[in-house]
Amino acid sequence: MLSRPICNHKKPKCEICTITIDVPARYSKDIRNEQMKDDKLKKIIDTFESPEKGSDYSNWTERGYLMNRGVLYRYSPDSDSEEAELVIPTQERQQILRDDHDAPTAGHYGAEGTVNRISNKYYWTGMRKFITDYFKNCPECNRFKASNQKPAGLLQTPVSSQRFETLAIDLFGPLPESKDGKKWIFIVEDYTTKWVELFALPSATAKECATTLLEEVLL
């Protein structure tokens, strides 16, 4: 008999209590054995099979979990669908993706399409992130995935209309200190003529460089 939440509605027909189970091709005992290897699923199953139905039982039933033939399923109480999904243990999730995404007949659907197809039959916590991460690491999908980036533009070389319109500046040092306390070389180059000026500075501060540029080059 199908185990499901007790319906307290007074109306004779209650759609939320009508749940369809898609029975897998494997034996129920084999599926159960795999679910029991997952500590989190084992905890839920033990709660359902315990003679005492406490707060944990109510918590799991409110979240849509139910038992059928010793196997754990889940349905969404807010969904219009009456079908319950088989709860997949951790060790079988990778194989589910291989069968439903990597197989020659699967077609390598995108992440969203794969989520929709798998969620119709199976459930596990964090399914969307798991599938998205798997999809990002799929060699075939990455190989043929269309790029959503704009093509690179043509390289354009700026053209100056006069001398000293565009300057390149740099610093070189520190060098061994000179007798007058200078240990940095301030380099100024004119892009148009390629003329280079060198200035010895005592320090490589922004103020020192700006003062030298204004007084020695621009003014």
UniProtKB/TrEMBL annotation:
GO terms for MF: nucleic acid binding; RNA-directed DNA polymerase activity
Alphabetical list of Pfam families matching this protein: Integrase_H2C2
Cited Gene3D superfamilies: 1.10.340.70, Ribonuclease H-like superfamily/Ribonuclease H (3.30.420.10)
The protein's Enzyme Commission number: 2.7.7.49
Integrase zinc-binding domain: residues covered: 88-146
UniProt cross-references to PANTHER family, sorted A to Z: PROTEIN CBG26694, PROTEIN NYNRIN-LIKE
Protein name, UniProt field: RNA-directed DNA polymerase
Species: Araneus ventricosus
